[in-house]
Inverse folding.
C-alpha cells in the first residue's frame, strides 16, 4: 500500500548507507518520509560515503530524493515544528538506522533531547511502530539493558547483521539484506534479497 508516512532517523553509528538506502526504498515505493540526521550522522556521511555536507538540504535531495515518487521532508534536530513531534500527527512508524548507543540511551530514558529522540518518544507513547537498527560491537551491559528496556516497551530491535544463506556476491548484496530486513520490520514490501526457501 503506497502513501504511508514514515520517520527515518540516521545517527552517527557506522553504516550510514543503511539509512540512506532505507530512505531511498521508502521513497521509491511512493511513501512520505520525514528524515532527521544527527550531527554525528553527518560526520559519518563524510567519513564513510565521502559526501560534502556543507549544504545539507541539497545533499539530501541529490542522494536520497532523486526521481522517486515519494515525498521527502528533511528536519533539523532543533526544529520541533516537525509534525511527527506531536502524538496527534498520524504516521505509520519510525526507524532509526543505523542507531548509535547514545541515541538508544536517549530514547530508552525518555530524554527527548533532540527532535529524533522526541519523535521516538512519541512513537512509544502512542503505541506506534518503532524499529531500532543498532550498529555497535561489542555490546556492554549498559547497551544491552537499554535495548532490553526498549524491547519491553514494544520497540523492535533489529541489529545490522547481514545473512549469508543467499550467497552474497557484492557489498551491495550485504547492504540489501540489512535494508530488506529493516523494511520487513516496517511491513513494507520489497524484493531486495532472496528469502529462505525461495
Amino acid at each position: 500500500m503506497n502513501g504511508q508516512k514514515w520517520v527515518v532517523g540516521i545517527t552517527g553509528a557506522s553504516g550510514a548507507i543503511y539509512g540512506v538506502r532505507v530512505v531511498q526504498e521508502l521513497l521509491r515505493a511512493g511513501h512520505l518520509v520525514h528524515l532527521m540526521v544527527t550531527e554525528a550522522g553527518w560526520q559519518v556521511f563524510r567519513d564513510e560515503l565521502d559526501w560534502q555536507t556543507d549544504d545539507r538540504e541539497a545533499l539530501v535531495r541529490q542522494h536520497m530524493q532523486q526521481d522517486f515518487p515519494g515525498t521527502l521532508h528533511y528536519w533539523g534536530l532543533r526544529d520541533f515544528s516537525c509534525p511527527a513531534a506531536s502524538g496527534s500527527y498520524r504516521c505509520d512508524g519510525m526507524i532509526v538506522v543505523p542507531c548509535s548507543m547514545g541515541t538508544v540511551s536517549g530514547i530508552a530514558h525518555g530524554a527527548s533531547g533532540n527532535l529524533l529522540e522526541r519523535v521516538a518518544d512519541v512513537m512509544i507513547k502512542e503505541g506506534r511502530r518503532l524499529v531500532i537498527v543498532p550498529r555497535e560491537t561489542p555490546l556492554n551491559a549498559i547497551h544491552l539493558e537499554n535495548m532490553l528496556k526498549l524491547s519491553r516497551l514494544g520497540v523492535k530491535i533489529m541489529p545490522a547483521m547481514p545473512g549469508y544463506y543467499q550467497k552474497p556476491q557484492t557489498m551491495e548484496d550485504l547492504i540489501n539484506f540489512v535494508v530488506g530486513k529493516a523494511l520487513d520490520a516496517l511491513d513494507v514490501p520489497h524484493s531486495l534479497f532472496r528469502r529462505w526457501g525461495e
